[in-house]
Design a protein that fits this description.
The chain has eleven helices and no strands. It starts with a helix and ends with a helix.
């Protein structure tokens, strides 16, 4: 069981690292600010503004909670937890196979059944996961907002939006991937032109020795030295003393 707990810990860490939490969008300035921040200060949080930075948890009535859960079920938001759980289960099963490529079929069956059952239990309306997600919606929407959205998604247009939006997003992502190389070339060309116009160098500065050599040669590479040394001139003074 200890080994299994270790596998679960590794898997959860991998899932957190792979989650779309926009951590990779941190700019260098934000990273520097995070390093400079005190240990008890969250990244991006200004000193002296702790109270204002974190909003108090909203009060959620049982009716408001029910409305939020209804909205989540309508829009499929509750399936996100199941999708992440299924991905975690597949990774965990892969770890079992890495430890034992000859895993018995009955072991695979038990692992899959128990993992999926755990996912379903953790995604129920009264599960701890929903207790974390519901306040997120309550922070950004009022109960009237949620009720208005539910009413909209019950209309023919709202029902169509729910049905086709996943396909629209998928097609848009595919179109974006196709255009990405062209956009990358345009970005690079514009950036190169701007840097050149403003005389900005992005390459690392040469070392002191290399800089001195470049100054002597006017920025050009020094001509290769002749491997054959020039013959020394005879010492006339020495010959005269003989």
């Amino acid at each position: 069981m200890t080994r299994l707990h270790g596998l679960l810990a590794v898997l959860l860490l991998a899932a957190l690292c792979a989650a779309p939490a926009h951590a990779a969008d941190t700019t260098p300035a934000q990273a520097d600010a995070a390093k400079a921040a005190p240990a008890d200060q969250a990244p991006g949080q200004s000193a002296g503004k702790d109270a204002a930075a974190k909003k108090p948890a909203p009060k959620i009535s049982p009716e408001f909670r029910t409305d939020i859960l209804t909205f989540m079920h309508m829009t499929g938001s509750d399936r996100v937890g199941r999708m992440m759980g299924a991905e975690m289960a597949n990774r965990l099963l892969g770890l079992f196979y890495q430890r034992n490529p000859n895993l018995a079929p009955e072991a695979v069956k038990v692992i899959q059944e128990e993992l999926m059952a755990t996912i379903e239990d953790e995604c129920k309306d009264d599960a701890p996961l929903m207790n974390l997600l519901v306040p997120v919606y309550a922070t950004h929407f009022t109960q009237e907002d949620i009720q208005g959205l539910i009413a909209f998604y019950k209309t023919p247009l709202g029902a169509k939006a729910l049905k086709v939006m996943p396909k629209v997003l998928g097609d848009a992502m595919e179109a974006g991937q196709q255009y990405a190389p062209t956009m990358a070339k345009t970005m690079y060309a514009r950036l190169e032109k701007r840097l050149e116009a403003e005389g900005i160098e992005t390459e690392p500065a040469p070392k002191d020795g290399a800089k001195a050599d470049a100054d002597k040669t006017g920025g050009k590479e020094a001509a290769p030295s002749d491997s054959k040394a020039a013959p020394e001139e005879p010492n006339k003074d020495a010959d005269a003393k003989k």
